[in-house]
Amino acid sequence: MSWSSLLSWSEWAMSFVIFVHFVVYLHFAVYYLFTGDYDSCVLSLFFMARTMGVWCVIIQFIFGRSMEFSDMWTWFFPRPPPGPDSNPRGPNNDGNGSGGVSGTPLMGTTIQALTLIGAMDVSATTIIMPIFVSSRGNEYFCEIDEDYLTDRFNLTGLNTEVSYYQYALDLVTDVFDLDADDDLREQIEKSARHLYGLVHARYIVTTRGLAKMLEKYKKSDFGKCPRVMCDGHALLPVGQADLPNMSTVKLYCPKCEDIYNPKSSRHASIDGAYFGTSFHSILFQVYPALNPEKSSRRYEPRIYGFKVHAAAALARYQDMEREDLKSRLAEVDIQHRFIEDSESDGDAFEYDEDYAEGRTEPAKNQGQAGDAASAPMEIGN
């Protein structure tokens, strides 16, 4: 007999002893209650509670975990396997037979890995989450604290978003003991991945979650910006919607403030709702020193050294709009600088009055920009 089997039988035996003590003391309490001996009834209830507490402490000392009444109830009265109608959002109720979750693995974790985790007879959110986070394709995720995952307040409302919710939660927290067939277990594993992703979106906007994602951001675990002018700045995962199955995850560059598709196909299939639309903004609100300086550099197309006329006119128009925005910010005492400004001079931004006077007629300037775009190019005499 294996050690894990011996532990299981020992737990069962101890739970049986607790159950017998509970029944005996309850019997005496009821007997004294009907005979009118209320003092003995209260004393029996006191001894019942004390004995239950002592046994729970013994089990916690031996097996390294707390004993809950739900454990004893599960051992004596196992839950029956769920049927297709056990959840209003179960299989065949959402139109695709997937129980509310896409038929493809949402995070790339193989079913074999989760099956192995579920088969391990060890206690552990300490086991399942590190394996899940370190799995190929899940590099964007951080490990959720066990205390956060087991706090039901943090899971409010998710029972309507995830099929087989209770079984999925049991699988994530590694207390799943249902002997189900392969098809049913596969559905529960998909729901467990979906549940972890939805909880992850809530966790990464907490203090602990932001700190963990910040470490990954500093190490460029999410990749680097493909834009040349950003000089390989680190990216952050972002969703375009907070609701699941709306869009896949994108990568946000805080330097050029644009979003990009992930390079790897295994990351491109991750649901954007697992990161949400607010995470990157909250991160830079909490850590404002990490918000990079923006650059005004842009690529200028040329032909034999001469700027392409339409592109040059557009660039001039964008430069005028940028300067107009800077002047408006200066008027309300909001200083905004580009990297090139700090390189050219070390002084703070100064309001250019000559430029402001030249911008008093925006319609005229826009007309000049349009004329410049359509005028012929004069190379020389």
TrEMBL record:
InterPro entries noted in UniProt: Casein_kin_II_reg-sub_N, Casein_kinase_II_beta-like, Casein_kinase_II_reg-sub
GO molecular function per UniProt: protein kinase regulator activity
Stored PANTHER family: CASEIN KINASE II SUBUNIT BETA
Protein name: Casein kinase II subunit beta
Assigned keywords, A-Z: Membrane, Transmembrane, Transmembrane helix
Residue ranges, compositional bias (Acidic residues): 343-355
Species this protein is from: Penicillium brevicompactum
Membrane-spanning intervals of the chain: 12-34, 41-63
Pfam family of the protein (one): CK_II_beta
SUPFAM superfamilies: Casein kinase II beta subunit (SSF57798)
One BP term from GO: regulation of transcription by RNA polymerase III
Self-association and partners: Tetramer composed of two alpha chains, one beta chain and one beta' chain.
Biased composition (Low complexity): 86-95
Family: Belongs to the casein kinase 2 subunit beta family.
GO CC, any one term: protein kinase CK2 complex
Residue ranges, annotated region (Disordered): 84-103, 343-381
Role: Regulatory subunit of casein kinase II/CK2. As part of the kinase complex regulates the basal catalytic activity of the alpha subunit a constitutively active serine/threonine-protein kinase that phosphorylates a large number of substrates containing acidic residues C-terminal to the phosphorylated serine or threonine.
